[in-house]
Amino acid sequence: MIRHLAIIMDGNGRWAKARGLPRSEGHRAGGETVRRVLGYCRDAGIDYLTLYAFSVENWKRPREEVEALMHLLVAYLAGEEPMLHEHRVRLRIMGRREDLPPAVREALGRVEASTAHHTRQLILCLSYGGRTEIAHAAREIARLAAKGEIDPERVDEATVARHLYLPDVPDPDLIVRTSGELRLSNFLLWQASYAELYVTPTLWPDFAEADFRAALDAFARRDRRYGGVGDAPRERDA
Predict the structure, then answer these.
(1) How many structural domains are present in the chain?
(2) CATH number, residue 118
C-alpha cells in the first residue's frame, strides 16, 4: 500500500507549446489534473499527496510566467476549497512561504486554516528546494546548539528529520515524475532516500487514471529492501 505519493508535475510548458498556446494555459490545464489526481488518491486510499508546484529555481523564469502562475494559484485555491472539504483533505504548504506574494500567502493561510481539521493531506511545495530545506534544518539545529539545547555530538538523522519543514509527514513511498525527465530536480532530497521512483513520458496535463494506475502497479511489483536482503530478486519494470 502507498501511504504517501509525491509527484514532480512536469510538462505543462511543452503541452502548451505543442498546441500553440501560451505557457500559462499549460499551467491552467495542469491545475485540472491536480483535481483529478486528488480523486484518484482518495479512491486508492492514499493519505498524503505532495506536489512539486514551484521550486526555488522557478523564480528565474520570465516575470510574466511567474505572475501568471501566482494568479492561477490564488484562483485555484478559491475555486477548489469546496472540493478539498468534500474529499476531507487538509492543505499544507512546504517551502519558503516568505518568498510568495502577499495575496498568495493570504489565500494559502485561509485555506490551510479552513481545512486544518481534515486528516488526508495535500502538500504543495512552493518556493521549495530540497537543498534549501536541508540548509534550513541545519540552521535550526545550529541555533539550538548555540543556546546549549542540543549537543552537537548527539545530532543524528532523527535530529535532522525533526527540523525539516514538515517533520510529521512520513517519507514518500513513491515519487512519480511526468514528461520523461530522469532527475529529481532538487525535490525532497532527504525524504526520497528510499522512495521508489517512477517516470512516465506523459505530460502532466495529460496524466490520466491509466497513468496513475500504471504507476501504482509498478510500485506493487517492487521489492523494497531498504538496504537489506529481500526474499526474492527485485522485479524490473518492462
Answers:
(1) 1
(2) 3.40.1180.10
Q: Region 190-207: what's the mean pLDDT?
A: 98
Catalytic residue (choose from 10, 12, 173, 211):
10
Angle between helices 23-44 and 209-220 (to 10 degrees): 50
Three-state secondary structure call for residue 176:
strand
Active site residue 58: yes
- Domain with 198, as residue range(s), is 4-129+171-219
Could you tell me if residue 40 is inside a domain? Answer: yes
- Please say if the pLDDT value at position 235 is more than 50: no
Q: Residue 32 falls within a domain, yes or no? A: yes
Q: Do 31 and 53 form a contact (C-beta atoms < 8 A)?
A: no
Q: What is the grid cell recorded at 156?
A: 543524528
Q: Is the pLDDT of residue 230 over 70?
A: no
User: Is residue 233 a part of any domain in this protein?
Assistant: no
100 within a domain of the structure (yes/no): yes
> What is the distance of C-alpha 134 from the center of its chain?
16
Catalytic position from the list 47, 58, 171, 206: 58
The SS3 assignment for 208 reads: coil
Question: Which amino acid would we find at residue 131?
Answer: R
- Judge whether 10 counts as a catalytic residue: yes
